[in-house]
Amino acid sequence: MCDDFSAGLRSRIPEDVPIVEGDIADTTALRGTFNTFGVTGVVHLSAKKATSESVDLPLHYYKENVTGLQSVFGAMVISSIDNFVYSSSAAVYGTPQSNPVKESEAFNPESPYGETKFVGEWLAKDLATSDALNWIALRYFNVAGAGSDDLGDNRVNNLIPMVFQAIEIGRRPRIFGADYPTLDGTCIRDYIHVVDLAEAHVAAVKKCEGG
Fold first, then answer.
1. Does residue 93 have an active-site annotation?
2. Residue 128 shares a structural domain with residue 72
3. What is the model's pTM?
4. Tell me: the pLDDT tens digits for 24-64?
5. For strand 142-144 and strand 134-138, is the pairing parallel, antiparallel, or unpaired?
6. Are residues 154 and 50 part of one domain?
7. Which residues, 6 or more positions from 132, have their beta carbon under 8 angstroms from its beta carbon?
8. What is the pLDDT of residue 155?
9. What residue numbers bound the domain in which 153 lies?
């Protein structure tokens, strides 16, 4: 596992999992990690993901999400690693025109965050042509829940932690938006449980590997 721990907690990683702390933009270090551990595939979960923040900091988001991914791909090509699972986003669709959203829905990202995920898929598609990359992109909406009580979200800039934080201090959760086509005008959001998402990534890895 390679992580810079800018958001994650090292204490939550099982002791038997090898950890390399570093920046994915360091292609040389990544190559060393790939060679040391005999890596045959990459599951890419590293990205900045706050939509509103991406509007304020587009250069930062492109640097982290696109340039960082380019570095990973560069190290993979040099190390002859051809299996790749990409944690993409339903943000590539923008405001979908169908419900449920079909995979064939037109791409129309509405934020720098969504655009960076779109570009990431472009890069993977082009590498599939040039270097026979086996890749799968998982596009999903909002993730919620935890695999166990001690793995709960440690940040409060996600909706569900914000709701519980408000309740804990005796305040009513704030709901933004009042012009959606619903009974009370508020937004309906789709969620996927984090355990289901983890299992989907494992299934994608097996698919890439021909399983």
1. no
2. yes
3. 0.88
4. 999 999 999 999 999 999 999 999 998 989 999 999 999 99
5. unpaired
6. no
7. 82
8. 67
9. 144-189
Question: Packing angle between helix 68-78 and helix 112-131, nearest 10 degrees?
Answer: 10
Please check whether residues 100 and 135 belong to one and the same domain. yes
Active-site residue, from 62, 93, 113, 140: 113
Residue 210: other Cβ atoms inside 10 A: 7
Number of domains in the chain: 2
106 in the same domain as 40: yes
> What pLDDT score was predicted for residue 156?
60
| Residue 53 Cα distances to 56, 110, 198, angstroms | 5, 13, 25
Among residues 81, 102, 82, which one has the least CA distance to residue 93?
Answer: 102
Are 66 and 165 part of one and the same domain? Answer: no
- Amino acid of residue 72: V
- DSSP 8-class letter at 172: P
Q: Is 13 helix (H, G, I), strand (E, B) or coil?
A: coil
End-to-end CA distance of the chain: 22
Q: How far is residue 200 CA from its own chain's centroid? A: 13
- Local confidence band at 7 (pLDDT 50, 70, 90 cut-offs): confident
17 and 35 in contact (C-beta within 8 Å)?
no
